[in-house]
Amino acid sequence: MSEQAVTDRELWILGVQAESGRGQVLTSYLESGGYKNRLERLENVASGRPLGIILDISPFSDDGWGLLRQIKSDPTTRNIPILPVFLSEKGAIGGVFPVAGFFTLPVDDHYLLERLAVYGLTEDAETWDLQALVVSRSGEENLARAVESVGFEIVKGYTGKEAMALISIRPKYLVFSTLMLPDMSAFELLEKIRLYPYSRNTPLFVLLKEEMKEGEKKAMAREVANLVSKKQLTCEEFLGYLRRRE
After folding, report:
1. Which of 85, 143, 151, 169 is the most interior residue, by most CB within 10 Å?
2. Do 116 and 135 share a domain, yes or no?
């Protein structure tokens, strides 16, 4: 692909209806940082090949959680990076959740290992004694076996609190967590992991159920709303998240 073709690719904003006006702050921040962007719809993602997607997952979004699941379950779109954000009712950016990526359950073993290799996360596993943490009520045996097959020692936690205890004992090289845990969401776990210097840069991958019921979507939206409280990110704070992902 030519340099010009890459330059012309845009960041797309999904989960925000154009007529609502809620995307104005986000688009202005992106433009200030030199990022081409536009509000788009799910049906155009596969053919449009955006550079990445910024997805509103707030209670005010246009089915942000449903969009996330659909994008990540479709082989033609699942490689597109997604940055989940919380936009307030008036469009203020209340929070950003920089997870390393998403995988849908049941996990496709070959795809999982392919993506981990693309991210450069498997190169040192056979040389060094590295641990991967899987946080899930069900243990996710297939995922654990796949990750173990490339040299990682698997450690399992069943709650967010247990995961944090395990990380404090020995930092983990990477973490996989189901979206909803018994005591918190994967996004809250991410926030806690980022609080400590020894785990701040640990990549966390979120595992998505094949289907999300409406009640589960609403519960997750409320959970995210509680995490951001009344925060509002400045332009520089928001752009900092994007620049760290480049």
Report:
1. 85
2. yes
Confidence of residue 246 (pLDDT cuts 50, 70, 90): low
49, pLDDT greater than 50: yes
Give the CATH number, domain containing residue 235.
3.40.50.2300
Same domain, 122 and 177: yes
Report the alpha-carbon distance of residue 11 to residue 240 in Å, rounded: 15
Specify whether 111 is located in the same domain as 202. yes
For residue 70, give its domain range.
3-98+212-244
Pairing type for strands 82-87 and 93-96 reads antiparallel
Looking at the structure of the chain, the number of domains it has is 2
Report pTM.
0.91
Q: Tell me: do 112 and 160 sit in the same domain.
A: yes
Mean pLDDT of 138-148: 93
> Between 146 and 216, where is the model more confident?
146
